[in-house]
């Protein structure tokens, strides 16, 4: 089911993330997907996250669809030109994949193939525009399609960015280009998120707050130093530092953040980073 239909029905939408393996052994990944069954509305499949070569998002989304799980195809512009991107969008729709999250993508230099050629023919805004054009029955060259797709198109935003104005301007462009919902970068400051939601209210588009599971105080400090627009408050770092059981503390913090921000937005997007098995515990503790 398209996420837009869930938002329209007034449901608080829950999605989680799954990373394809580096190789063709999909057994463990499919076991992780099973943990999410019945607990989330859809499963995002990352597209060569952090520019690390992995099994493709499209193939994994197809496997999930075959198993009765609703996928969200993440699509980045880093590795493909506009011909390949449009072709993959059409391929996805033919395979029954309707939810698409459009991203620019991390730079090549971050990944395991730093010598690769980056493409970036399109960016997240022009990819949304391309998908919208396909829905109108034409490609970016203005050529008519034989049968057109009907997607639910999503995009990302960073509520913790400073200054925030460029993010809001980009959000406006993304909505204009066809974005029907947003998933956010990791949020750890409910007050700041509330201010952000107040500022973007006029866009009238569903926003899902992003929750990255904190695995350690060290991880929190690393994100503060290296991930633009993400800030883990010192109080949470101390909690993680002093915790006897880091997993239990991580679950508690994630659930607390969801409870505090649930009424400010239309959904939550969980990024467990390999801790998929703890997703049900987080949702239970958050009352979802």
Q: Tell me about the largest β-sheet.
A: 8 strands, parallel, barrel
Please give the share of residues in helix. 40-55%
CATH architecture: Alpha-Beta Barrel
In percent terms, what proportion of residues is strand? 15-25%
CATH topology call: TIM Barrel
Secondary-structure element string: HEHEHEHEHEHEHEHHHEH
Query: How many DSSP H or I helices?
Result: 11
Helix/strand structural class: alpha/beta
Task: Quote the average pLDDT.
Answer: 96
Spatial order of the strands forming the largest sheet: 1-2-3-4-5-6-7-8
Question: Into how many domains do the coordinates divide?
Answer: 1
The CATH first-level class comes to Alpha Beta
The first-to-last residue Cα distance is 19 Å
- Poorly predicted ranges: none
Looking at the structure, what is the overall shape?
globular
Give the total of beta strands.
8
Radius of gyration: 18 Å
Overview of this structure, please?
The chain is an alpha/beta fold. The chain has a single domain (3-286), classed as TIM Barrel. It has 11 helices and 8 strands. The two termini are 19 Å apart. The relative contact order is 0.13.
Topology (SSEs and partners):
Layout: H1 3-8, E1 13-18, H2 27-36, E2 42-45, H3 57-66, E3 71-76, H4 82-94, E4 99-103, H5 124-135, E5 152-157, H6 165-177, E6 181-186, H7 190-199, E7 207-212, H8 217-226, H9 234-242, H10 246-261, E8 267-271, H11 279-285
Parallel strand pairs: 1-2, 1-8, 2-3, 3-4, 4-5, 5-6, 6-7, 7-8
């Amino acid at each position: 089911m398209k996420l837009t239909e869930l938002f329209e029905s007034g449901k608080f939408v829950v999605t989680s993330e799954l990373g394809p393996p580096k190789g063709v052994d999909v057994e463990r990944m499919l076991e992780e997907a099973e943990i999410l069954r019945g607990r989330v509305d859809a499963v995002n499949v990352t597209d060569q996250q952090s520019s690390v070569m992995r099994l493709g998002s499209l193939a994994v989304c197809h496997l999930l669809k075959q198993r009765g799980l609703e996928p969200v195809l993440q699509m980045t512009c880093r590795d493909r030109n506009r011909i390949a991107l449009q072709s993959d969008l059409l391929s996805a729709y033919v395979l029954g994949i309707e939810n698409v999250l459009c991203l620019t993508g991390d730079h090549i230099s971050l990944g395991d193939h730093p010598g690769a050629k980056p493409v970036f023919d399109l960016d997240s805004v022009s990819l949304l525009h391309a998908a919208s054009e396909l829905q109108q029955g034409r490609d970016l060259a203005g050529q008519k399609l034989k049968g057109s797709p009907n997607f639910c198109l999503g995009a990302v935003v960073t509520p913790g960015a400073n200054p925030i104005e460029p993010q809001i301007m980009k959000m406006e462009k993304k909505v204009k280009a066809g974005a029907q919902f947003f998933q956010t970068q990791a949020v750890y400051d409910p007050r700041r998120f509330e201010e952000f939601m107040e500022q973007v209210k006029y866009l009238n588009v569903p926003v899902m707050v992003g929750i990255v599971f904190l695995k350690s105080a060290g991880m929190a400090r690393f994100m503060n130093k290296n991930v633009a627009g993400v800030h883990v408050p010192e109080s949470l770092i101390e909690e993680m530092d002093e915790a006897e059981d880091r997993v239990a503390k991580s679950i508690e913090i994630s659930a607390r953040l969801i409870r505090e921000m649930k009424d400010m937005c239309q959904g939550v997007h969980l990024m467990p980073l390999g801790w998929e098995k703890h997703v049900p515990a987080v949702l239970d503790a958050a009352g979802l």
